[in-house]
Design a protein that fits this description.
With about 240 residues, the chain is an alpha+beta fold. It has one domain: Endonuclease/exonuclease/phosphatase (Deoxyribonuclease I, Chain A). The strands form three sheets. Strands 1-4-5-3-2-15-14 form a seven-stranded mixed sheet, with no helix packed on it. The protein has a six-stranded mixed sheet with strand order 6-7-8-9-13-10, with no helix packed on it. A two-stranded antiparallel sheet has the order 11-12. β4 and β5 form a beta hairpin. α3 runs parallel beside α4. The longest helix has 15 residues.
């Protein structure tokens, strides 16, 4: 696969200045979604849910000239570029946001020789604070030492930032060692894992969850892991966050 030459990829953001309180985040590895059918309609129509304010998507697919994604402005970090499409992590929002950093992993995945991507975006809140959101598809098919190095590099980058923060995505934590490495880094950042009333829909491998949302400086209003077996092999995670009282 081709290392992307087109990064960052973004279009002008929405006009609404601040995220509402509360605001809804959807996190979804949507690799198996047929976007020719779906990405031109709002995601709330596809999933039959109230409209979200932030989308955090992994393995998203789009064309370079595509103006919107699920009818929302977006910012993307592609990890693969072909003659027709870009593939990678994509954050979209109905409210004003802007990129802080787009990056690829230092290592490439064994056998596939592909990089993985992450994207940091900043979202103004009505409290005057700035929410930092990191969307990540963590590296896979590498020895644990390389996985740990990539996760710790993310932690070192985020240690420099203050205020409310959300990390979301597909972390490829398919064994206990990877889970421990991830949780150690998240704990060092003061981040907590979002839990759900029913966690069975969360995508697992070797009985270990792959998809997570971590947060700090916010409160959870509601959280759901939504089963969509006819759309994708991963299920979306839906969380309503509200500002600290």
């Amino acid at each position: 696969m081709y290392k992307p030459k087109l990064t960052p990829l973004s279009i002008p953001s929405a006009t609404a200045r601040f995220l509402p309180n509360p605001f809804r985040l959807i996190v979804w590895n949507c690799h198996k979604v047929n976007f020719d059918r779906h990405h031109h309609q709002p995601i709330e129509k596809l999933l039959n849910i109230p409209a979200p304010q932030i989308l955090s998507l992994q393995e998203a697919t789009l064309t370079p000239e595509q103006p919107h994604f699920f009818q929302l402005p977006y910012i993307m970090t592609p990890n693969i570029q072909t003659t027709k499409n870009l593939y990678g992590v994509l954050t979209a929002s109905s409210h004003h946001f802007y990129p802080l950093r787009q990056q690829l992993t230092k290592s490439r995945e064994l056998g596939f020789l592909t990089y993985k991507a992450s994207l940091i975006t900043l979202h103004p809140l009505s409290s005057g604070e700035i929410l930092t959101h990191l969307n990540i598809h963590a590296i896979n098919f590498v020895p644990h030492l390389l996985f740990k190095r990539e996760i710790e590099a993310i932690r070192a980058l985020l240690e420099q930032l203050t205020g409310p923060m959300i990390l979301s995505g597909d972390f490829n934590t398919w064994n206990k060692k990877r889970v421990a490495t991830l949780f150690n880094s998240m704990g060092a950042l003061g981040l907590k894992r979002v839990t759900y009333p029913d966690e069975r829909p969360i995508k697992t491998l070797n009985r270990q969850p792959l998809d997570y949302i971590f947060y700090r400086g916010l409160e959870i209003d509601s959280a759901q892991a939504m089963r969509v077996p006819n759309i994708s092999d991963h299920n979306p995670l839906i969380v309503d966050f509200k500002l600290n009282q």
